């Protein structure tokens, strides 16, 4: 299994994102992904599907091989709220431990030092094996790494060829953190991209596979979401080819102003 190691913690380089998946479909897709070989499953309190994700993981019979990530929602970042919500997440997942616990979005109304203190406590007390952040900017990453008493192993952010995230990637590397890309195929937007299709023809791969390979070849973990079982296999079959330096550069050239897809009123000031 291809993994990225950050501060002694191993993150499988390809995972299943479960945003918008619910009910039986969510449990079934989670179980099927693990059968195919996925060892990284991503959920969040905000997704309202932790029960189904946990069910799929347990049904796979491979719990001990799978890294499960969940994320604390921004309204729960005050220490007592965070601790309570993490215990509730664990109860919903019905797993022994949360493998990777992330702050889903920064919340400027709660001092980061307080939130990180509670996150560190969750790790020390055995509720989470590792902790990290999501949607953090360069400035927030610098601040978080100064403040946290336990190692922060990753930053999960939107990342795909249409969005230049070089500054955030560099900050993660500087802090010894892994970068995990959500919306790695731009929510399906790479399908039909002429450049990616042309490169795909050379390697007998789809535009989606080329895009995922472009990210993983940079040692960036990816968590593509899909609701189709046949797409699970396509997204996973990206380790049997390699992009040339020229192809990598051409794909990087797709970045454009306005390429960001996920931007809420509570988003931080992006780099």
Low-confidence stretches: none
As for the CATH topology, it is: TIM Barrel
Subunit organisation of the chains: single chain
For the largest beta-sheet, the strand count, sense and barrel status come to: 8 strands, parallel
Q: Globular, elongated, flat, extended or rod-shaped: what is the shape?
A: globular
Short description:
The chain is an alpha/beta fold and 271 residues long.
Explain this structure.
Helix 1 (23-36) runs parallel beside helix 9 (229-236), helix 2 (50-60) crosses helix 3 (79-93) and helix 7 packs across helix 8. Helices cover 40% and strands 17% of the residues. The chain has 271 residues and is α/β, with parallel strands linked by helices. It has an eight-stranded parallel beta sheet. It has a two-stranded antiparallel ribbon with strand order 1-2. The longest helix has 15 residues, at 79-93.
């Amino acid at each position: 299994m291809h993994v990225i190691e950050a501060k002694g913690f191993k993150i499988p380089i390809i995972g299943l994102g479960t945003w918008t998946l619910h009910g039986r479909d969510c449990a079934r897709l989670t179980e099927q992904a693990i059968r195919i070989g996925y060892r990284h499953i991503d959920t969040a309190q905000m997704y309202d599907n932790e029960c189904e994700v946990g069910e799929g993981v347990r049904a796979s019979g491979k719990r001990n091989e799978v890294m499960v990530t969940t994320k604390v929602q921004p309204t729960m970042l005050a220490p007592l709220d965070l601790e309570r919500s993490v215990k509730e997440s664990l109860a919903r997942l019905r797993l022994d431990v949360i493998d990777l616990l992330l702050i889903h979005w920064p919340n400027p109304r709660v001092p980061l030092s307080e939130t990180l203190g509670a996150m560190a406590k969750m790790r020390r007390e055995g509720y989470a094996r590792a902790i990290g952040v999501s949607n953090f900017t360069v400035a927030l990453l610098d601040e978080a790494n100064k403040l946290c008493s336990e190692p922060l192993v990753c930053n999960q952010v939107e990342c795909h060829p249409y969005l230049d995230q070089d500054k955030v990637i560099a900050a993660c590397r500087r802090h010894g953190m892994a970068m995990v890309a959500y919306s790695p195929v731009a929510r399906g937007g790479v399908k039909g991209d002429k450049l990616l299709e042309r490169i795909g023809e050379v390697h007998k791969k789809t535009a989606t596979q080329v895009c995922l390979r472009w990210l993983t070849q940079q040692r960036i973990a990816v968590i593509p979401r899909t609701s189709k079982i046949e797409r699970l296999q396509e997204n996973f079959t990206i380790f049997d080819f390699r992009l040339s330096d020229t192809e990598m550069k051409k794909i990087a050239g797709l970045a454009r102003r306005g390429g960001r897809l996920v931007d809420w009123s509570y988003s931080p000031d992006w780099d």
